[in-house]
Amino acid sequence: MKIATWNVNSLRARADRVEAWLDRSDVDVLAIQETKCKDNNFPWDLFENSGYEVAHFGLSQWNGVAIASRVGLDDVERTFPGQPTFGKDTDPVQEARAIGATCGGVRIWSLYVPNGRALGDPHMPYKLHWLDVLKEHAVEWLQADPHAQIALTGDWNIAPQDEDVWDIDLFQREGYTHVSPPERAAFHAFENSGFTDVVRPHTPGPGVYTYWDYKQLSFPKKMGMRIDFALASPALAARVTGASIDREERKGKGASDHAPVIVELA
């Protein structure tokens, strides 16, 4: 069984590339982020014609998450329980950033973690709170069933290790997001709770990334970041036989700024 996660950065704009990649990669489940669709303009046929069931959660032209599966798609949840909203209490905004489904016996979450924008921006405490609530649920899921097979996949918008950005000195000197101690602590809290980054052992760095900005020729200059992850529960991590980052998919006209991340299960 093969599970993948991919921030496609506008599904309709990259429909042809996504369809071709599904045919080429032969994955069983694809967790998607940044569909930038509402349900009424989501390209359902793209997946159904390729043999996948698909569940989508989109509220506007921003964000949006989906799961496409050819091994079953059950118990779909749009948002995790108590998912934080952004904005004032009198006018909260619920963003389409999380969707879960059971696929082939694995509980898969497609997650698009808030960016944070800047260390002093209101989106930063929102990001940290969002992650903390998700982590508390992840702990509860494992406590309820230590043998549960859970995959927390997606764009985490965090580079948890220094080697996960092309120039850590620049990031820390300029006070950039994604590498701040609170963000990294929020990521490591999942690992401390029993979840494992199952991709890194098969794709060791430095210089191994999943995202390259469109600006400043970042991709050919290898100015990337590793911010897309699959964190697995203990029972699921024990089944992992391999993992890869499809860097080739970042090449060429019309590519997303993220590369697909693939996990292979026994």
State mean pLDDT (0 to 100 scale). 97
Helical proportion?
Answer: 10-25%
Q: Which structural class do the helices and strands define?
A: alpha+beta
Biggest β-sheet strands, sense, barrel? 6 strands, mixed
What's the arrangement of strands in the largest beta sheet? 3-4-2-1-14-13
Count of extended strands: 14
Low-confidence stretches: none
SSE order: EHEHEEEEEHEHHEEEEHEE
Distance between the termini: 7 Å
**Count of helices?**
6
Strand content: 25-35%
Radius of gyration, in angstroms, nearest whole number: 17 Å
Basic shape: globular
Provide an overview of this structure:
It is a single chain. The protein is an alpha+beta fold. It has helices spanning 15-25, 44-48, 123-144, 168-174, 181-192, 234-237; strands at residues 2-7, 29-33, 53-57, 65-69, 74-78, 98-103, 106-112, 150-155, 196-197, 211-212, 224-225, 228-232, 240-245, 261-265. It is globular, with a radius of gyration of 17 Å. The termini are close together.
